[in-house]
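in:
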């Protein structure tokens, strides 16, 4: 957005952020574009993609194997059918394990989206309030600092979430690679 806004001491003054005191038209347009491009559009895209992924995982989880084996009296055919049945059972078990891992990934992603929304919503609300002329947040440095710290903390939560929820998969991969 170029030179529409500048950085200035924010909140309690120990960190820099947007120049919330800029009341010019360019400053208001900047805050509005910031809200739309940095908060609103990414949230819409991430929610859409996550709903699509959850729907796909749900559909695949509830998919039933459609191969039914006929039983005949010939012993060679029975042993062949038993082998095919066991092979299909192993494939189905592997498929279900992969889907279980996918469900854990979807859970981790959903938690990340919720934390992103919780962390960035206050900052975005302050930006919208600035666009529409409310100056309450400007004269409450603790509110500005809290919003900024929450937003900045959201950057470190994703590795923690994925580390906790996907730890078993990572450990299994490391163990298999060491063998």
């Amino acid at each position: 957005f170029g030179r529409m806004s500048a950085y200035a001491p924010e909140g309690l003054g120990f960190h820099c952020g947007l120049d919330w005191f800029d009341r010019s038209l360019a400053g208001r347009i900047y805050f509005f574009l910031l809200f739309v491009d940095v908060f609103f559009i990414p949230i819409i895209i991430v929610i859409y993609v996550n709903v699509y992924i959850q729907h796909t995982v749900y559909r695949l989880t509830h998919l039933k194997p459609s191969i039914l084996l006929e039983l005949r009296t010939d012993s060679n055919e029975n042993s062949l059918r038993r082998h095919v049945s066991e092979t299909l059972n192993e494939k189905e078990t592997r498929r279900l394990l992969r889907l279980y891992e996918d469900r854990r990934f979807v859970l981790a992603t959903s938690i990340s989206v919720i934390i992103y929304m919780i962390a960035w919503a206050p900052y975005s609300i302050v930006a919208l309030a600035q666009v529409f002329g409310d100056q309450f947040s400007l004269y409450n440095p603790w509110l500005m600092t809290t919003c900024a710290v929450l937003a900045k903390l959201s950057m470190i939560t994703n590795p923690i979430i994925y580390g906790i929820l996907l730890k078993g998969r990572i450990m299994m991969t490391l163990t298999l690679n060491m063998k």
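note: Residues 75-131 form the longest helix (57 residues).
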